[in-house]
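Field guide to reading this record: the first block holds the primary sequence, the second block holds the structure written as discrete tokens, and the final block holds curator observations. Each block starts with its own label. This record concerns Putative nucleotidyltransferase with HDIG domain, catalogued under organism Keratinibaculum paraultunense.

BLOCK 1 — SEQUENCE
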Amino acid sequence: MGNKKLNYIISKVDDMPVLPDRIKKIIAITEDPDSTIQDLEKEILKDQSLTSKILKLANSAYYGYPRKIDTVSQATILLGFQTIKSMALASTVSKMMSNELKGYALGKNDLWTQSQTCAIISRYIAKEVKFPNPETAYIAGLLRDIGKTILNFYVEKEYHAIINKVESEKIPFLEAEEEILGFNHAQVGEKIAIKWNFPEELVEAIGLHHSPEKATINPILVSIVHIADAITMMMGISIGADGLAYNFSPFALEKLNLTPNDLERLISQSHDLIIDEDSFDL
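BLOCK 2 — STRUCTURE
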């Protein structure tokens, strides 16, 4: 397929929806150590739908607070700036991820449900392995397959060729995708993350979530997303065409110091975590 096609698709990435200014502003406020809760609340209140999502999530069983949270500032105090940043991003990408993706045999909302599941499990694993910023893991898990939204059109055209390759050569969908198109959805996702000016560790986690052993910037973060992704697929969440032939990378397990028993516990806990439907309603 050569470089011409790759360049063409990358040029399509330039047509990618840019992050809305309001979301950029919210992210900037959450990353500025001098910002106050009032600064953040003021920005969030300009967006009615984001305000209601934040309040809904703050009141969901996932956070389990005994009393009702009815102001953004209360939610911010309880949830923290980083969680608010995650929610703002999630509310933006949920629109991009809710379309049907025929190329990946994903129905309407499937990619969103799968991404939100992977994000929640990434955050949970991050806390379990004492990763310093679980919200970074949440965002990396949420965006790990964002490249599919761009590649869908091309995969759809080559769908049968890719599936035939998966079946005849017994290789993962990602490898077949790469052999037939010249590159894969993780690489395209990486380009989107660069376009959105995300930190290098996030760019890497999205680009290498299928091959954590190649990570050089933050192998722990990449390993967390890799394991969360594999658990999401194992659980059969909106599985789609590339949900077959998923394995846990020995590198990732070693990096996170996880034994088979730990893994079993993570898998059963993950089941419990995603029962709360409120987390998916963005």
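BLOCK 3 — OBSERVATIONS
The domain at 2-280 is CATH 1.10.3210.10 (Hypothetical protein af1432).
The chain has one domain: 2-280.
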